[in-house]
Amino acid sequence: MPSKSRRPNKRVQWRRPGEIVRDPLLISEGHSRFDVVQGELGDCWLLAAAANLTLRDELFYRVVPPDQSFTDNYAGIFHFQFWQYGRWVDVVIDDKLPTASNGELLYMHSRDNREFWSALLEKAYAKLHGSYEALKGGTTSEALEDMTGGLTEFIDINDPPSNLMELMIRGVEMGSLFGCSIEAYPYKWEARLSNGLIKGHAYSITGMRIVNGPRGPTPLIRIRNPWGNEQEWNGAWSDNSSEWRYLSPQVKQSMGLTFAHDGEFWISYEDFRRNFEKLEVCNLGPDVMQEVQQMTGIQTKQETWAVRSFDGIWRRGQTAGGCRNYLRTFAMNPQYHIKLRDADPNDDDDLCTLIIGVLQKYRRELKSHGVETLAIGFALYDIRGGVRRKLDTEFFANTKSCGRSPAFINLREVTGRFRVPPGEYVIIPSTYEPNEEADFMLRIFTNGIIESNELF
C-alpha cells in the first residue's frame, strides 16, 4: 500500500529569513562544517554529507552557487544544484522555511542564526525528492553522491580490506569524502554509549593526520557529529585528553586543534577500528572535477579515476533475468564489456583497481507511492580472448564469476572494489529476483586505462 504523507507533530509556520532575523545572510564569514546542525528531521545522513561538502570550496560552490544573496537582486528565491543519475539539475526554491511558533527553524540550521545556506539547501534537497518526509532515513553515501557526482563504496570495518588505512590516506589524497557509523540497536535508534559515541548515527570524517604521540607515530582521524554539540568521543585523543601534551603548539596549530562542544573530535585509527563499524568512501571522478574547474576556475591537482557509465533498464520478460541463481534467465540481463590496461607499467603487482557501482533510479522519489527499493547486485566475469556479443546460458553454466557484489541488498546503490589483472571482463547488473522492473545506472571507476561497450 502507498504510504500516506503525515503532518509534523506540531504546528509549523513558514517564514522567510527576513521574518526570522534582521539582516539575514546566505553565508556568514565563509561556510564551514559548523554551519550544519541537525533539527527535528531524521536526516543526519544528509547533514554528515553537507558537513563534508564544506571542506572543499570547489565542491561547495558547485552545489551552492555563489551568485545569490538576501541583498543584491533578492527576489525571495534561491537555487541549488545536485547530481541526479548522471546529470546536474538546478533546483529553485522560495525561501520560506518551516519554523516553530517561537520563530526558530525546525530542521537543519547553522550555529549562526543569521546564516541560512544549510536550511535552504535542505529544503532544495527535499524538493528534489518530493518532501521533507522523503528525507527520513538514508545513507551518507547517497547524499554525498548527489552533491558531488562521485561513486561511493561501503566498507565493513569489522571485516576490512588489509590495506584499509592506506586506502583511506590514498582517498584523502585523491579528494575522496568519507562518512562512518556504528550499527544501531534493533529497538533503539540513536543510543548514546559510555564512550560518547552514538549508535545508528551518521558521522563525517573531516581530516586525517599522523602525529608522534606517547606511543610513537599515531594515525589520527578527525570526526564530526552533525548534532554539533558536546556529544563527542571521550577516550584517548579526545578534547583535553592527556595525549595532546606530547604535541608541540605548532603541530596543534597546524591541525586546527580546538577544544569546544562543537561535535568534532580526534580519535586514533586503532580506536576508530575498534568502535566504528561502517565506512563510506565517496570517490570523485574527473568529470566532476572538470565541471568544478569550469565553474570556479579552481584547478585541482589530485590524481583522478578513469570513469565509464551506462544507463540500463530491467524489464519483465525482456531484460530482468534475476541473479545467477536463476540460470535459465540470467543471460537476459544487460551485459557490459570492459577492457582494462594497467596505467602504471612500473606497478609492482601489475593489477588494476576496479570499482563497480549499480544504482537503481527514482526509488526515494517514489517512496510515498509505495515503490520499494529492490535487492540489486552484479557479477563480474573474466573473458579470456575477448567477446563480441552477449554471453549465453551455456557460458554461465560452465563459468564461475571472478567477482561479484558483496550481497544483493535493497540499497539505492551497490558497489564493490576489486584488484584484477589487465584484461577483458563482462559486468552483469541484475535484480535478485527475475522480472523485477527498474531503471538503473552502471558506473565503473578504475586507475587503469579502460575501453567499454554494451553487448547485444
Notes on the structure:
The radius of gyration is 23 Å and the shape is globular. Helix 3 crosses helix 9. It folds into three domains: 127 residues, no CATH class; 132 residues, Cysteine proteinases (Cathepsin B, Chain A), CATH 3.90.70.10; 150 residues, Jelly Rolls (Sandwich). With 456 residues, it is an alpha+beta fold.
What order do the helices and strands come in, and which of them pair?
Layout: E1 13-15, H1 17-20, H2 44-53, H3 57-63, E2 77-84, E3 87-94, E4 97-99, H4 117-129, H5 140-148, E5 151-156, H6 164-173, E6 177-181, E7 191-192, E8 198-199, E9 202-213, E10 216-224, H7 249-254, E11 264-268, H8 269-275, E12 278-283, H9 286-296, E13 306-314, H10 327-330, E14 335-341, E15 352-360, E16 376-382, H11 393-398, E17 403-404, E18 413-420, E19 423-431, E20 438-446, E21 449-455
Antiparallel strand pairs: 1-4, 2-3, 5-12, 6-9, 6-12, 7-8, 9-10, 10-11, 13-20, 14-19, 14-21, 15-18, 15-20, 16-17, 16-19
